Amino acid sequence: MYSDLMDSFSIFLRSAFALYIVYVGYQFTMNKKEGKDSQDIFITSILVSAVYVFAFETSGYYNYVIKPAFGLLEDILTFILSKVQEASSYLGKPAETDYFSDVTNITQLFTALDMMFLEFMKTCKGLLPSGWKMFNPLLLVDVFAILMLILAYGAMYCCFVFMFIMSYFLMWLLFYVGGIVLILGCFKETRGIFFSWAKMLFNYALVAIFTALVVAVCYAGISQSVYKMTTYDTTMLNFTADFLGLFVWCFICFAITLKTPDLAAGLTNAMAGSTSGIAGALSMGGGKAAAMSAGLGTMHGKGIGALATKAGQMTGVVPHGRSATQRLKDRLGIKN
């Protein structure tokens, strides 16, 4: 994992590790630390030594942490997709097409969506009017409907690809810096960085799982609608359950896929990374702006009150900041 890093910075890293061991030995030799402090330093030195050898000097971090983690993620995805496939088997398989193959892992899901998109585009091309018929106002409605279908399917597919690939990429990025984070986790002062790193890693893993689950559930309905559209024997679009079914399934899949980062963030207590995160940032900014406006209004009101009191003192209307009613009560001997 860090072989290239060690080729370039091995002298620096090994020197830093040796200096740390010398520093710890000096602390114990000179009795600089006693009691619980000495125990903490001793335990920290053992952890740093083990993590340094495990992550940097050997390939243990890659073989026993990264590979099993991604293997576990793939096993979870395979289990979920196979169970969704079994649950949706009641819909039947109307024809032996490329995109109606069994989807039991993430690679088959991507392949099925690609093949189904190609079949869908061929169907839409066959439904489009040609030649002078394009200028028929009634046929323009069909053109608009087909374009809406293409946009809905494209938005759903792009959202799924973006969410899933983003999660995998960020997991690899976090694992790549994980060796340094593990070193920081050995120290009490920087242990919070390790916990934040682990929380983010678990969050992106859940995003990938939820995204694949949502698309797998919606895949059965989308594939049925696409298949029915391919069976049209005319060039006219059928504005019935086929059209509405495909549009609604794509829209539902797109909307729920956007919410998968929020679902993962709710379980890991992390920051949401989808549309609600943007909305939350905007609302936070609006709240701060409102608070600032209220503060400016309060300061403005206090300034006006102070100026009015000063003016009253100068004109004798409100001497020493007292009102006329208060002056009358003082003369008559009335107490509040």
Structural topology:
Blueprint: H1 3-29, H2 36-57, H3 60-87, H4 106-127, H5 137-176, H6 178-185, H7 191-230, H8 241-268, H9 275-315, H10 324-332
Helix pairs in contact: 1-2, 3-7, 4-5, 4-7, 5-7, 5-8, 6-7, 7-8
Can you give a write-up of this model?
- The chain is mostly helical and 336 residues long.
- The chain folds into 2 domains: 59-273, no CATH class; 283-332.
- 79% of the residues lie in helices and 0% in strands.
- It has 10 helices and no strands.
- The chain has helices spanning 3-29, 36-57, 60-87, 106-127, 137-176, 178-185, 191-230, 241-268, 275-315, 324-332.
- Helix 1 (3-29) runs antiparallel to helix 2 and helix 5 (137-176) runs parallel beside helix 8.
- The longest helix is centred in the C-terminal third of the chain and has 41 residues, at 275-315.
- This is Conjugal transfer protein TrbL.
- It is a multi-pass membrane protein.
Helix content: over 70%
Radius of gyration: 34 Å
Per the principal axes of the C-alpha atoms, what is the gross shape?
flat
Order of helices and strands: HHHHHHHHHH
Total strands: the figure is 0
Instruction: Give the N-to-C terminal Cα separation.
Output: 81 Å
Low-confidence stretches: 274-304, 306-321
Structural domain count: 2
- How many distinct helices? 10
Beta percentage is under 5%
Determine the oligomeric state from the structure: single chain
Overall mean pLDDT stands at 75
How would a crystallographer describe the biggest sheet? none
Give the helix/strand class.
mainly alpha
